[in-house]
């Protein structure tokens, strides 16, 4: 997918701290930074990254999310990395048989947003690529997050897990775009008067070419045609285009048939 | 994140067709297959993949989602690839100035689920890695999907875009796990009688050691302690553990103080 980045548009920033525990591959750390900044998160903490820090491979895979890597903090263990946080969510793919609250990313995002609005410092804990967090680390968390996936094939890499959870966080930002809208380019949505005008133009020409074979069927046929046009949510410009289409077709028929 | 795959658990399958238009890297095609199967999607179509098909690099990055690659169909152009579909959603990161409905992945998933339940064949159209879909291809779609991201840094790779949209689809499956639950391991959640019994045991011992310095403060202190325990959502096993803790602490004190 093409990048939709625009450095002239406002950076939407702020959100939980992401803590990677013993990440193995620099590429994955960079991909995590990229996933985070996509969703406005910038605070990254690393606990004992296997290949040391800084790591040029992380920069290569961050795709420009350098500010996240530059500010990343290094910690010798998880206890220190979560010390100043007030709520911690740990991610896990497995049922470890422990008693903990478990959220899907959406429910976790809703709860984190409330905590964020109340001024709490929140952390998201991710384990090493292959093994995940160990039970003692899960026990540091207020609750767990598990991504709902096909139970017979649940296989996310580290950055994808970070992305899905951070995406759910971003959706809760007040600045996130609406769920659905009609994008209308340069033109405004047509008014009902514009539309009625078009309908009457079309129906006048349809009468003229004897499109309505039986008069008693005309009202229902008119309604069906109007319904189809209503579903188009036409713009002002498109209404003008359809006026032209009707006039053009009718003119051709008249010209040819004269 | 660790794989949570379990081949003994039921495969949840079914959903929209994913159509990749002129994908460049085999690695990305494999990563798309992996993202799809995570979310139960298996129908993949490829329009003129740059490096031909089949592609061993796709297999390497599919992480076991071979069934998606094995069934993938090849098409010479987008028109043929969408010919049998009844609803098509095209993904885009840019505002192209055309008039089209645009959904975020969540709203699109809700609409697709309704269409799926009504028996419609649905497709998701993704463009080439660098350029995305061209306007003529977007015009084949009933509506567009745009992932809401940080406007100043919106940078998803192809498989991540597929994953986010397919994830939202999967969340709408009836089989998806609940948004939140208390995972209790082997033990059942405690009953209120279990809890009251624990509270009374604790308060009896607190009375014995003169924990409540002033009698008039006892009721509110008891309520506060009970509230803290209620927030724990204890299991039966944990209630037994706390009985042991209270008995153990009190016994030690009695022994020492005798």
Our count of domains of chain A comes out at 2
Share of residues in strands of chain A: 5-15%
Could you give a short account of the major beta sheet of chain A? Answer: 7 strands, parallel
Number of distinct beta strands of chain A = 8
Which two chains share the most extensive interface?
A-B, 78 and 78 residues
Considering DSSP H and I runs of 4 or more, what fraction of the residues of chain A is helical?
A: 40-55%
**What is the string of SSEs of chain A from the N terminus onward?**
EHEHHEHEEHEHEHEHHH
CATH superfamily of the largest domain in chain A: SPOUT methyltransferase, trefoil knot domain
Q: Given this structure, which CATH class of the largest domain in chain A is correct?
A: Alpha Beta
Oligomer: homodimer
Residue-averaged pLDDT of chain A, rounded? 90
Q: Tell me the span between the first and last alpha carbons of chain A.
A: 54 Å
Mind telling me which CATH architecture of the largest domain in chain A this is?
A: 3-Layer(aba) Sandwich
Find the structural class of chain A using helix and strand composition.
alpha/beta
Task: Describe the protein.
The structure is a homodimer of 258-residue chains. Chain A is α/β, with parallel strands linked by helices. Chain A folds into 2 domains: 17-170, Alpha/beta knot (3-Layer(aba) Sandwich), CATH 3.40.1280.10; 192-255. The first copy, chain A, contains 10 helices and 8 strands. Chain A has a 7-stranded parallel sheet with strand order 3-2-1-6-4-7-5. The radius of gyration of chain A is 28 Å and the shape is elongated. Chains A and B meet through helix 1, strand 5, helix 7 and strand 8 of A and helix 1, strand 5, helix 7 and strand 8 of B.
